[in-house]
Amino acid sequence: MTDIRVPTLGESVTEATIAKWFKAEGDTVAADEPLLELETDKVSVEVPAPAAGTLSEITAKDGETVEVGALLGQISESGAAAKPKAEAAPAEKPAPSGNGAAPSAATTEVRVPTLGESVTEATVARIIKNAGESIGADEPIVELETDKVSVEVPAPVGGTIASLAVKEGDTVEVGGLIATIGGSGAAAAPAAAPAPAKAAEAPKASAPAASGDMPPAPSAKKAMAESGLSADQVEGTGKRGQILKGDVLKALESGVTAPSASAAPAQQSRAPSTGDDAEREERVPMTRLRRTIAKRLKDAQNTAAMLTTFNDVDMSAVMELRKQYKDVFEKKHKVKLGFMAFFAKACVHALKEVPAVNAEIDGNDLVYKNYYHMGVAVGTDKGLVVPVVKNCDQLGFADIEKTIADFGKRARDGQLKLDEMQGGTFTITNGGIYGSLMSTPILNAPQSGILGMHRIEQRPVAVGNEIKLRPMMYLALSYDHRIVDGKEAVTFLVRVKEAIEDPQRLLLDL
């Protein structure tokens, strides 16, 4: 017996719903023949037979919710794949009346797809198809980049790119318009009309393009390419008429054959073969910086007993202070007054009260640092780097801002020196500049603490006996629980919160 189980469905996807079984108990199945369709909140996926044989048992029915790895059914192996039934080819359906061969004038919008959890926008990295160019269904139009992934956006239907709403370098939000696709007019033109019956099939061939049906499933498209069938020859049974692999196999069993050689070029222009996934992959060696980042982050996870605690902070006082003095500050010091200097100073203040967060483990010893070298995470095209502001406790606001601004510029230009990224005792990372609401930053080993800043957003909070809107930010402290206790971590965050909400405390060292 061979088990049929729910496959891995993608990052963070743990369950799916059974949309439809294509086979019933007792049916003979071939290896890799689709057995059922699963639906998640992101994709629909077919589950193929892991072996040839007979579907002896179905343990999960249509409509049930199943977890990854759950048992769906069992196949009793017969050692022989299912043989096609010797059925006569069905009679051809009568052609629809009227002249339906003209392409539809309707357009189809292509929009930015969901890009992953918490990702709300992306950058247009590359335009693959320009306005006026013809395009096949599932052929990529543009390539988008986020801080996590690069993804190609395919055409939902074949046709011609009527217009492009974006250009390279644009930032687009999820759901934003990318392009519109018009009727291609490339629906299979009738052959040189050897017989009236063949010419009458032209309206039928143009129907899928005008109806806006879903493109065939990837496995179905591959099966059609291998067998030489076109989408017009297969009746789809999936959602909204989508053609599934089982539909292709059923068409082959019923005697449907590939179109004649004269029709092949038109078929290929509508649905080009995509080939194997391996042929569409690009293998690029990791840069030395990326390898170093990956190793250090994984080492930190494997070594430290890492835990994260959260708090939120009202940014009203700092924003008001910054608004009041930013012009005169910039005029005198030739640098803008940002938020990082406030947080760096607040962290130094908190580290002095909670020295465990400024310590590290060396063998069986705890090493407490009586100096404050503040690491500041900076994102670059090549990866994340953490230059260190040395002796941050001895610097003023202007010196901190100048140092961080200089680090940021030289980091993006690749001009940081190695010694400028060593010796940090604590790190601050600001995911808020990318729009992050909340995160759990990874320790910068061998440090025992890292503070994560996030975006500022207006939220209702209780102020006295009233509810008011305040510019609030979530703070996250990830720490090594081998050194730092929960009480110390919470105390540290509370001290940072107090200093930011009442900046005068920094001046008075309170």
TrEMBL record:
Q: What is its EC number?
A: 2.3.1.61
What catalytic reaction does the record list?
N(6)-[(R)-dihydrolipoyl]-L-lysyl-[protein] + succinyl-CoA = N(6)-[(R)-S(8)-succinyldihydrolipoyl]-L-lysyl-[protein] + CoA
- Keyword list, A-Z: Acyltransferase, Lipoyl, Transferase, Tricarboxylic acid cycle
The answer to whether keyword Membrane applies is no
Extract one GO molecular function annotation from the record. Answer: dihydrolipoyllysine-residue succinyltransferase activity
Question: Pfam families, from UniProt?
Answer: 2-oxoacid_dh (PF00198), Biotin_lipoyl (PF00364), E3_binding (PF02817)
Q: Which GO terms describe its cellular component?
A: cytosol; oxoglutarate dehydrogenase complex
Any keyword Transferase? yes
Q: For this entry, list what GO says about its biological process.
A: L-lysine catabolic process to acetyl-CoA via saccharopine; tricarboxylic acid cycle
Comp. bias (Low complexity): 82-106, 258-273
The residue ranges of the Peripheral subunit-binding (PSBD) domain are: 215-252
Subunit structure and binding partners? Forms a 24-polypeptide structural core with octahedral symmetry. Part of the 2-oxoglutarate dehydrogenase (OGDH) complex composed of E1 (2-oxoglutarate dehydrogenase), E2 (dihydrolipoamide succinyltransferase) and E3 (dihydrolipoamide dehydrogenase); the complex contains multiple copies of the three enzymatic components (E1, E2 and E3).
- Give the family this protein belongs to, as stated in its UniProt record: Belongs to the 2-oxoacid dehydrogenase family.
- Job of this protein: E2 component of the 2-oxoglutarate dehydrogenase (OGDH) complex which catalyzes the second step in the conversion of 2-oxoglutarate to succinyl-CoA and CO(2).
Query: Per its record, how is this protein called by name?
Result: Dihydrolipoyllysine-residue succinyltransferase component of 2-oxoglutarate dehydrogenase complex
